């Protein structure tokens, strides 16, 4: 899985865990409406987040890999499941589980990447 995509997934996982706005690596220029956040970072990557109830729809473009991607996050209480696919055929699945101030995160991709990591508001990931 592309490093930029991993950072993006981690950033959104942390965002969901802390119930805060997304914090992306590096400065980005964003436009926001009631349900949509659209951003372009200094590297030329673009992404958007659309909220419908407890579901997040993420779309993006990675400049380095010249690929588009889409991800859907569905929240059920303290548990959030996500699935995604990229224009090069890579697919991924995972979940984020919130336990107090800690999140337990796991994902795997068809490209062979997988990880399990724990994040805390106090100590980070």
Automatic annotation (TrEMBL):
Residues 1-22 form the signal peptide. It comes from the Bacteria. Keywords: Signal. This is Glutamine synthetase.
């Amino acid at each position: 899985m592309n490093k930029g995509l991993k950072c993006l997934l981690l950033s959104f996982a942390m965002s969901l865990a802390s119930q805060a706005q997304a914090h992306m690596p590096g400065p980005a220029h964003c436009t926001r409406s009631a349900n949509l956040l659209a951003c372009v970072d200094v590297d030329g990557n673009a992404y958007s987040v659309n909220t419908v109830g407890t579901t997040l729809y993420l779309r993006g473009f990675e400049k380095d890999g010249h690929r588009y991607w889409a991800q859907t996050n569905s929240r059920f209480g303290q548990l959030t499941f996500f699935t995604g696919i990229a224009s090069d055929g890579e697919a991924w699945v995972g979940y984020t589980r919130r336990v107090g101030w800690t999140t337990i995160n796991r994902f795997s991709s068809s490209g062979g990447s997988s990880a399990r990591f724990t994040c805390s508001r106090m100590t980070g990931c």
